[in-house]
Specification:
By secondary structure, the chain is an alpha+beta fold. The protein has a single domain, classed as Transcriptional regulator MraZ domain (Chemotaxis protein chec). 40% of the residues lie in helices and 30% in strands. The protein has six helices and eight strands. The strands form two sheets. It has a six-stranded antiparallel beta sheet with strand order 1-7-8-4-3-5. The protein has a two-stranded antiparallel sheet with strand order 2-6. Strand 7 and strand 8 (112-117) form a beta hairpin. The chain is globular. The two termini are 20 Å apart.
Length: 144
């Protein structure tokens, strides 16, 4: 499980060092990067990518929103391996999608990692913290 928030920088070749505590789950089989919601990059372990891909394939192909979602999710996907220094390379199309420049936030979100532009993450994180602080009523009927 991926947890925590880390500040990192991306070099000129689009490489970013992943936090040491994230690397162990990705060293053996690598990972898959793809477009994430809210304009970030999702990083999945290969095993979790396979599970998510199977789940995505269950979306109805007769629904135009599902087809568009699947196109974006799968066309943006890029398998990666960690190099000897624990880095992955974020492809240019994903850097553009998420507006990644240099300063990044690398965030653990349970089964995946999210990579954000640091400034954008600061905004999104503040909004999420506000929702989190006031959400108990919305989940009380779901037993959470």
């Amino acid at each position: 499980m991926f947890v925590g928030e880390y500040q990192h920088t991306m070099d000129g070749k689009g490489r970013v060092v992943l936090p040491a505590r994230f690397r162990k789950a990705l060293e053996k089989d690598g990972c898959v990067l793809t477009k994430g919601q809210d304009e970030c990059v999702f990083v999945w372990s290969t095993d979790d990518w396979q599970k998510e891909a199977e789940r995505m394939k269950q979306l109805p192909r007769t629904d135009s929103r599902s087809r568009g979602y699947l196109r974006s999710f799968f066309s943006g996907a890029e398998p990666q391996s960690l190099d000897g220094q624990g880095r992955i390379t974020i492809p240019q199309n994903l850097r553009s999608f998420a507006a990644l420049e240099k300063d990044l936030a690398v965030v653990g979100v349970a089964e995946r990692i999210e990579i954000w532009d640091a400034e954008r993450w600061s905004q999104v994180s503040a909004e999420a913290d506000d929702v989190y602080a006031h959400i108990e009523e919305a989940f009380s009927d779901q037993g959470i």
